[in-house]
């Protein structure tokens, strides 16, 4: 079935052109309007008898679907219902999400998507996206051409090894690719029919998945080393040939692989890694907002990052770049960043030390003045007691890592400590906002990785902003695809951070939230897209003509979740 969006020659009004009739229209989620097809459309498209006789408005359909949604008993059941709605009527699905974004975003993505990935093989209903297995490594180009998406602009690619804080989920990782692309449409109005989720299946080391008789992925341990890299290389080469202008987002790869693929391909194809670059950008925006509360300068901050994986490395890199931009030398900026992992402070003398951790490891001289600690293993608490950080960032995946003594230690030397427990899903958060506020006597400035309800501490109500990558990557994608930007630079993420922070109102800051409300997220994405395009032009990665009437140009690229008239044009 072919369908496309055209404009009427006389009125310039948009409509959908289709080359088939009847039930095929109802089976395609991008052409199906259900009982919203008009009488004239039912006549022209042979739909009589296939639908109830009443013609409904989209408002009536929304009322019906929301009633069904509320009848579901738990978050996973709600996720399954919304997924089934997407599979039959994409326009209605996104319109429902838009009207209930604060309620439903935690269902279609974190934290519920984590559970959906864990149970992916048990709740699987209908195919979406492409599964490219290692067994078919000689047919990758053919598989890519088999996509139901005629002209994809964005693909999200995972191998399912590091899903959120849940680890290796194998083929279940497809839920993440689907979820991220859902956010591209929900948050930045990227047309949903132009997005392509991909799961690269190289096996799984998750014994529970391998023992599950219903598991849908390859039943062997993960392919590693040179064989794995050759598979990734073959995949990227096929993408360059089949979709030479597509934006490729790497998602939830194991930390070493994540950093390797990012640096291997970032100058060869239009690509980025949201776990590394998106997380860093949204965190930096939160810090910029927090500094508006404290009145301090970024160059005066001292930062401890709990976790030294790919996300932490990306955060450290962007913070150093931002501090350098704020006036510090690169050496002094690096001196303000301290990283810890499960073995304590990351130091150069540790053996063995992962190669990617060496970049931000501390020299022996940096800890010579530390008091009351074992130099062979300096804990997070000891690091904080000696460094006196103003900002504490958690991307460790270790629940309850930020203990009462750690928070009180920070609050003892900083009047308004900034605390960012970013790990998700909720069960992996380093601390709760309630604990951070209680243990800091209500003085902590907080943003979390997962959504939390407002907290009342000492009689003051605090809105808890979510340090959600969805504030950043959809807008970046919108800018890149609108301007056909050839490569994605760190400068674009820096521009996105500054733009997002500028959109937080003083009222929101007074309420304790470091981010705009989710109801504003499309406005945020529009502004970020414009900033990314301006940065792209500055760096010579986008055509200067894109700046002409830029805001309107970006607005016109944003998809609207409303029904279009359908015409049969064989």
Characterization of this structure:
By secondary structure, the chain is α/β, with parallel strands linked by helices. Among the domains are: 108-269, Rossmann fold (3-Layer(aba) Sandwich), CATH 3.40.50.10380; 277-470, 3-Layer(aba) Sandwich (Rossmann fold). It has 24 helices and 17 strands. The protein has a seven-stranded mixed sheet, with helices on both faces. Strands 3-5-4-6-7 form a five-stranded parallel sheet, with helices on both faces. Strand 12 (418-421), helix 19 and strand 13 (445-448) form a beta-alpha-beta unit. Helix 3 runs antiparallel to helix 4 (75-88) and helix 21 (490-502) packs antiparallel against helix 23. The longest helix has 21 residues, at 274-294. It is globular. The mean pLDDT is 95.
Helical element count?
24
Mean pLDDT: 95
Q: Provide the CATH topology of the domain at 277-470.
A: Rossmann fold
What is the CATH superfamily classification of the domain at 277-470?
A: NAD(P)-binding Rossmann-like Domain
Helical residue percent? 40-55%
| Main structural class | alpha/beta
Rg computed from alpha carbons, rounded to a whole number of angstroms:
24 Å
What proportion strand? 5-15%
